[in-house]
Amino acid sequence: MKGRQKGVALLVVLLILALMVTVAATIAERNGRTYLRTAAQLQQQQAKWYGVAAEALAGKILQRDRLDLPNKTHLAQNWAQEDRRFPVEGGELQGQIVDGQACFNLNAINQGAGEQTDTPYPAKVFLQLLNNLGEEPLHSEQVTAALRDWIDSDSEPGINGAEDDVYMALEQLYLPANQPMQDVSELRMVYGVDAALYQRLLPYVCALPTQTLLLNINTLRTAQGPLLAALFLAELSPQEAEQLLQQRPREGWDSVAEFLAQPSLEDIETTTLRPMLAVNSDFFLANFSVLMGDNHFSQHSLLQKAGNNFQVVQRKYGLSMMVTP
């Protein structure tokens, strides 16, 4: 009888010990997760401040280049240096500054629409850009009209356009914004813009907080020939536009007049086009990526010239976990 009681007591002790081990393991696991979560949050916060510091540095670089050359922005300046890398405590920061006016501003597509009955010039440019990228003419017209309806403030569809009734008939229901785009990614939501077309358009378009079309001919890349050609509508081919950009002086053209005086452009009517061109830029996009441990922090800052300085008018963040091989 006593032996049986001892056996039961031993079994109880073992059960209690197993329970204690289980509780201890659970507490340790929870503490470990809390520690990792806290460490990740601290890394993210530190990376964010690195991004803010890099943003301030970008503003100073742009300010210095502007003070050195007030009336011209070109790709030989310090701001245009690619693949900047800076070691930081616990990781690395990468940064790049790109001209915010070396692209077609989607928010300007209706510029001048209230002043004329004809299709506004920026809409013609976007239509021509689609054609230059290989879209079927009818589809190009539909996408252009849908984009105009997406950005205008009314709910009345234009010819070949798309408003509430079109989007409410889709499998995934939503409504058009009827306001300027806050981000270029909104283009993917415009009726007729599929993933493939969106990817083809990305190197040529942007969404600035202004409804004015103004492109800097000194900062367009050679690969953006289709966009430069679109500005001349059907008067210039993408190949001819690329040749123009290849022949551009290292420090760019000194004026729009000098650019339009190029032999291949002399016979083209440029009265409508001329106000849309510039050799200087006031908008710049600074892209930063901070890698700390397994955390990858991304920041995108839009800077605008304000007096002799550049101030941040828009800031966006992207955060994802890096998968290590």
TrEMBL record:
Q: Classify the source by domain of life.
A: Bacteria
**Assigned keywords, A-Z:** Cell inner membrane, Cell membrane, Membrane, Protein transport, Transmembrane, Transmembrane helix, Transport
Domain T2SS protein K second SAM-like per the UniProt entry, residue ranges? 215-280
Localization in the cell:
Cell inner membrane
Q: Where is the T2SS protein K first SAM-like domain?
A: 102-210
Q: Which NCBIfam families match?
A: T2SS_GspK (NF037980)
Q: What PANTHER family does this protein's entry cite? A: TYPE II SECRETION SYSTEM PROTEIN K, TYPE II SECRETION SYSTEM PROTEIN K-RELATED
Q: Which family does it belong to?
A: Belongs to the GSP K family.
User: What is the name of this protein?
Assistant: Type II secretion system protein K
